[in-house]
Amino acid sequence: MSPLGFVAIVQIGAGLVGSVVCTEFSSTSLPEACIDDPSKGWRIYHRTMLFLMCNMLSLFATFGMLESLLDDPVKHLLAFGSDWMDALLMLVMPLPIAWLLYLAFARLSRWWNEFLS
After folding, report:
1. Is the whole-model pTM more than 0.85?
2. Range of 15's domain?
């Protein structure tokens, strides 16, 4: 398997796992328990799963935006370098939007907890 395929499968698979975990815990408990758990281990776990979900969503959004802006993003971005450089580019490109999605979800979660209290 090429490095690009491996990175794509890991990002999408980890994002799906993160989505399932975030959906399961946010529907059964208050948002405070999801990302602001008193236990450090659970807090790190929930925040990591949330970031993996946001990373997958930003991967789809990034390539969707590139598809609308460029004629063929694969030809323009991923076709000129080696397989390792293409995999690194695919790994790094969605990170800025992933952080914004993570911060937005965390702020919305905390606001919702204050609203319910």
Report:
1. no
2. 3-116
